[in-house]
Structure formats: C-alpha cells, structure tokens
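Example record

One chain of 83 residues, shown exactly as stored in the release files.
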Amino acid sequence: MPKENSIPLTQVEGKGTFVVDSISDRDAPTVKLLRTSGIVPGIQLRMRERRADDGYLVSIGRSAQVLHLSREVADAIRIHPPH
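Predicted structure tokens for this chain:
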C-alpha cells in the first residue's frame, strides 16, 4: 500500500532524489523490468532529467549509470522524499 505522501514518478517536475515507495503490479513485464534494473521499494532514485517526448532519465542511489524509463514504466513507480 503506497504512503499517503507518495506520488507517481511522472508527477516530478525537476531533478531530485526520492525513495521508491512502491511499484504497481498491474503489468508483470514492467515489474520484471524494474526489478532487473534494481528499482525496488526502499531504494533511492535520482531524477536526472524529464524528457517531454520520450520519458525520464534516472539513476539508482549514487550510481553514475543512467537508466531511461518510458512514461508508462515511470508511471508504475511511486516515490516520496527521503526522510
């Protein structure tokens, strides 16, 4: 169950660091993709860039590796600010 103050990643306007609260389980391939990429509840996710036409660039924790997420995949991720 998502926290009350969590929002979909797609609602983030700018750069920032967030904690993954939950991942929607509505689409099994999306869940598998996110888990394989290391995006699971509890990890820190950095929004690096929001691209209006083709998705989001994020990284996990302090990693320099950048992952590209489509809008559909990003919408399955709920985040909240770090404590």
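Notes: The mean pLDDT is 92.
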